[in-house]
Design brief:
Layout (H helix, E strand, L loop, with lengths): L1 H15 L6 H14 L15 H12 L6 H26 L4 H14 L12 H13 L6 H19 L1 H19 L3 H21 L1 H11 L11 H24 L4 H12 L2 H7 L2 H7 L1 H28 L6 H11 L1
Helix pairs in contact: 1-4, 1-5, 2-3, 2-4, 3-4, 4-5, 4-6, 5-15, 6-7, 6-8, 6-12, 7-8, 7-9, 8-9, 8-12, 11-12, 11-15, 13-14, 15-16
């Protein structure tokens, strides 16, 4: 339902507006027009995002021999990114074992928060949820053994770098944390890390210093706004300080098969803060912080539900315990 609603909003708005060159779509359509003239992104014109955001609609247009117009191919890409982003958010909530009612409420919130009236593929939720989804997808056991895991690591890293440099960096950080916690110091660790580093190395080989220049300009704050301690920014930082250290502590303390997923998720969520605080306006704070908000809401509900069940269980067993020390210990263990 959420995916259908999002697609209906994007498609309906696209059909209603008099010109395809509207909002953020104008940025991408002008660059797609340049590509039809043989120009290349990064090298021949300014472009600040991942190659897939241009390559996919251009490929759809060319594979149909022009039957699908370039602007239609672009809006189809926007709808696909919206659908995949909501699916990634739903997958994240399933991994967190959120209550079905909570899951529905959070997905509705994400759908409304990511309503893409500017028609920019960069503001579809896939870009913001990809790293967190990749962090949890990485730890799924592969039926093909270590070789399958290495290929999966390579593909997950490639997907992040194809979307945008900051998504690639977040995905790389998440994969590196998961790899180290899962394999420790071993040959498999080196092979997985090399697989994660292969996509950015390939992109640098293809686009060269132009891509490095882009990342340097963005990293140096070329398009940034001043960081002002607004209520929205303070709320996001407060949630980050509550959620990310807690995930890190769980990963270090458990040291079991789930610690790798927890460490990878903590790294992915930590990497949402630089792009959120870069532009530092309400829109970028909310969109970049969506994974952190989703995990924070699910974590808060789970913690409250656990405390409630723990309190109920402790009351049932209080009469059986004789000393205050035992009562305190029992309540602690039930949390």
């Amino acid at each position: 339902t959420c995916i259908t609603s999002s697609a209906a909003v994007i498609g309906g708005w696209w059909a209603w507006i008099p010109s395809s060159y509207f909002g953020e779509s104008a940025y991408f359509l002008t660059r797609l027009d340049m590509m039809t003239l043989g120009l290349q992104p990064y090298r021949d014109f300014d472009y600040g995002y991942g190659p897939a955001l241009l390559v996919v609609p251009m490929a759809l247009h060319r594979m149909t021999a022009g039957f699908v117009p370039l602007d239609t191919a672009y809006v189809a890409t926007v709808i696909a990114h919206a659908a995949l982003g909501l699916a990634a958010a739903a997958s994240l909530l399933r991994h967190l074992r959120a209550d079905p009612r909570v899951r529905i409420a959070i997905l509705i919130f994400v759908t409304v928060a990511s309503t893409n009236v500017t028609l920019g593929v960069i503001y579809a939720p896939l870009r913001f949820f990809y790293a967190s989804w990749a962090a949890l997808s990485f730890v799924r056991p592969s039926r093909h053994g270590v070789a399958g895991e290495i290929v999966g690591t390579l593909l997950l890293s490639l997907g992040g770098w194809s979307l945008s440099p900051e998504v690639g960096l977040a995905t790389l950080a998440a994969l590196a944390a998961g790899i180290v916690f899962r394999h420790g110091i071993a040959v498999d660790t080196v092979l997985h890390l090399l697989a994660a580093l292969a996509p950015p190395a390939a992109l640098l080989a293809i686009y060269g210093r132009e891509l490095v220049g882009l990342m340097s300009r963005f990293g140096g704050g070329t398009l940034n706004f001043p960081i002002v301690p607004t209520p929205a920014m303070l709320a996001l930082l407060g949630m980050a300080c509550a959620v990310i250290p807690s995930l890190g502590a769980v990963a270090i303390r458990r040291r079991d098969e789930r610690s790798a997923a927890t460490a990878a998720l903590a790294a992915a969520l930590g990497m949402t803060l630089p792009p959120a605080l870069g532009r530092c306006d309400p829109g970028h704070l909310l969109l970049n912080g969506l994974p952190l908000v989703v995990v924070g809401l699910a974590w808060s509900w789970w913690s409250r539900d656990t405390r409630r069940r723990g309190a109920a269980r402790s009351e049932e067993h209080t009469s059986e315990l004789q000393s205050q020390f035992r009562i305190s210990y029992a309540v602690f263990c039930l949390k």
